[in-house]
Amino acid sequence: MERVIVIGCPGAGKSTFARRLRDRTGLPLHYLDRLWHKPDRTNVSTEEFDRSLGEILNTDRWIIDGNYQRTLEPRLIACDTVFFLDYPVELCLEGARARVGAVREDMPWVELEFDPEFCQWILDFPAAQRPRIYELLRQYGGEKTVFMFQTRQEAEDYFKGRQL
């Protein structure tokens, strides 16, 4: 396990999982939200984002945290291990609400409210995002080590039972 992606619905706890994985493996951790968002709540250009992501993908060891479906296929091609936190929407909504007001390593600002548009993005995830993730995992998963967790306890059990 040298090149890892952590994917799943917003609010699933991808960043928390990725930090625990970093702390256990020593792999460098990169947050796609940090690549995309600026502290003033604007975004970098798509070209700048792709360039930064490409630089990471061209290194030998990394964990990349984030869904960003537009770039999922190249990340899947480049990685050797996938962690898909495939949690129920209610759990993801709860996770997203719980982080409002918290300073986070994975974001360049503090979310001060649970944005209705972001809430809708989470509600739409199962129909709008999950099918493509499954399709890409079917396409590339045979070449990768893929872990799919459907509960937080399964993710916790992974850390309890693995020598990383």
One letter per element, helices H and strands E, the order comes to: EHEHHEHEHHHEH
Distance between the termini: 9 Å
Task: Classify the helix fraction into a percent range.
Answer: 40-55%
Overall radius of gyration: 15 Å
Q: What oligomeric assembly is this protein in?
A: single chain
User: What's the total helix number?
Assistant: 8
Describe the global form: globular
Classify the beta-strand content into a percent band.
5-15%
The spatial strand order of the largest sheet comes to 2-3-1-4-5
CATH C-level class is: Alpha Beta
Summed over residues and divided by their number, the pLDDT gives a mean of 95
Structural domain tally: 1
CATH superfamily: P-loop containing nucleotide triphosphate hydrolases
CATH architecture: 3-Layer(aba) Sandwich
Low-confidence stretches: none
Class by helix and strand content?
A: alpha/beta
What is the total tally of β strands?
5
